[in-house]
Amino acid sequence: MSRKFFVGGNWKMNGDKKSLGELIQTLNTAKLDANVEVVCGSPAIYLDFVRSKMDAKLGVAAQNCYKVAKGAFTGEISPAMIKDVGVNWVILGHSERRHVFGENDELIGQKTAHALENGLSVIACIGEKLDEREAGITEKVVFAQTKVIADNVKDWSKVVLAYEPVWAIGTGKTASPAQAQEVHDKLRAWVKTNVSEAVANSVRIIYGGSVTGSTCKELASQKDVDGFLVGGASLKAEFVEIIMPTSRLPNTALAV
């Protein structure tokens, strides 16, 4: 079974109509690889604008949503609202939501369930902090995070797992290809044991953490790295390089 390469761009709290419009124009006119699924995570206030300007072949994601459809939850947005502006993806569990805004595994699981039940596809983020890696508990942390997500998923075709070691996000540090492959391989084995072999073979596990045009090539050559969640570089023309097949080594294996 082949897994379609997936490149997500997480714009975080960056951009305005002018700069994002220019970026969208760059993406719309670039000759992108049709064998790569591309989804861009826009700030909530620009979701409607981005979806209306972005070519239909490119996906758009919200960067967060809440666990219920509506109500007295000031500042939140619901999956129904996201769908209402034509957006079909949401990023959940990002380390900045976990560690800056205090979201715990339980809440992320509830958000995942509600998003999926309401027709959104989910980029579900997991990853360890530096002290957890140094303490040798990377597997324990990411398996616990993955379990809470898995417990809330019925249709895995709507989920992409994004492994993002927290110590590599926005720091300029990138997990080595070997480090990324090791965790991705163990995650796939966990899914095989705890969900099913079929899901383990089909689910896309992407890597995030200071991915750039120069770091993506060797990372993409790893057999269990099925794409990227790109932060800062997704706001630059460099993002096109990361999407393009020439950025990846010839032996980039999409086959299991």
Short description:
This protein is of the alpha/beta class. It is 38% helix and 16% strand.
Question: Could you estimate the helical fraction of the residues in percent?
Answer: 25-40%
**N-to-C SSE string, H for helix and E for strand:** EHEHEHEHHEHHEHHEHEH
Mean pLDDT across residues: 94
* Uncertain runs: 249-256
Strand content: 15-25%
Number of strands: 8
Number of helices: 11
End-to-end separation in angstroms reads 6 Å
Q: Give the biggest sheet.
A: 8 strands, parallel, barrel
How are the strands of the biggest sheet laid out side by side? 1-2-3-4-5-6-7-8
What do you see in this structure?
It is built from eleven helices and eight strands. With 256 residues, it is of the alpha/beta class. Helix 7 crosses helix 8. The chain is globular, with a radius of gyration of 17 Å. The termini are close together. The C terminus is likely disordered.
Q: Secondary structure elements and their pairing?
A:
Elements: E1 5-10, H1 17-29, E2 36-42, H2 47-53, E3 59-62, H3 79-84, E4 89-92, H4 95-99, H5 105-117, E5 121-126, H6 130-134, H7 138-150, E6 159-163, H8 177-194, H9 197-202, E7 204-208, H10 216-220, E8 227-230, H11 238-243
Parallel strand pairs: 1-2, 1-8, 2-3, 3-4, 4-5, 5-6, 6-7, 7-8
Helix pairs in contact: 5-7, 7-8
